[in-house]
Write a structure and sequence with these properties.
The chain is mainly alpha-helical. The protein has one domain. Helices cover about 55% and strands about 5% of the residues. The radius of gyration is 18 Å and the shape is globular.
């Protein structure tokens, strides 16, 4: 019987001191579990901006969808995931469908007890992988604590926004139009989530808040292993 081929996406970035070690760690775990035939794809997050417009927009919609899945209360998370996977398989994933999903997530959150909620921030390559964080947040949820994950879509948007500003990309660039479009996408999702939104209220101001509140710590991002756009959350969300 022929075995199915699987691929696992495990991103990395150029600025962390771990220098791709997360991917190698994941490779070791897969091999130990007898999954040596599973292919591991590990693109640099900085280079995702080089995707053509269609792929870049689909990628960002998937990031938004993943953030909504994680934002859903644990007992209902599989249901939201199945909804998103159906949309993807049918080629129906778009911002309007995600807005509808966000409304459903908001309704489910309105029925939850949010006392003692924890905002989870930090190195995204560890934050979103239970194997790398020892399932810390999963165990918190099992004990009834609500964990609010900082959105990966917002992280990637800030990464691309930093590149655009630092390199003074021309107005003709598709990157500029995509940054504006993705900002609109996040604003629309945030609006549908209402009081339960986990997005920053004013996109694009995080860098000013960082440099004004934390000074030269921004330059230490490579030392502590956190991308600059995530360090900003220490000023805004802790």
């Amino acid at each position: 019987m022929r075995r199915r081929s699987f691929r696992c996406a495990d991103s990395q970035n150029e600025g962390a001191e771990v220098d791709g070690q997360y991917s190698r760690f994941m490779r070791c775990i897969l091999d130990q579990e007898g999954l040596a035939d599973v292919q591991l794809i590990s693109p640099y997050m900085e280079e995702l901006r080089l995707l053509d417009d269609k792929d870049a927009r689909m990628l960002f919609l998937c990031l938004l969808a993943g953030d909504l899945v994680l934002h859903t209360p644990p007992l209902l998370r599989d249901e939201t995931l199945e909804l998103v996977l159906r949309l993807i398989s049918r080629g129906q994933l778009n911002i309007e469908k995600l807005e509808s999903t966000a409304r459903i997530v908001r309704e489910s959150l309105a029925r939850q007890d949010h006392d003692g909620a924890i905002m989870a921030i930090g190195e995204p390559l560890v934050l979103f992988k239970s194997l790398l964080n020892d399932d810390t947040f999963g165990r918190m949820e099992e004990h009834g604590r609500r964990v609010i994950y900082a959105p990966l879509s917002e992280y990637v948007w800030n990464l691309w926004y930093d590149y655009y500003n630092f390199n003074k990309v021309g107005s003709y660039s598709s990157l500029r139009s995509n940054i504006a479009l993705f900002k609109e996408y996040m604003e629309r999702i945030s609006e549908r989530l209402g009081e339960f939104s986990h997005y920053e209220n004013s996109f694009g101001t995080l860098k000013k808040l960082l440099t004004g509140g934390l000074g030269f710590i921004q330059a230490a991002s490579a030392v502590i292993g956190a991308p600059r756009s995530w360090i900003r959350y220490s000023e805004l969300r802790v």
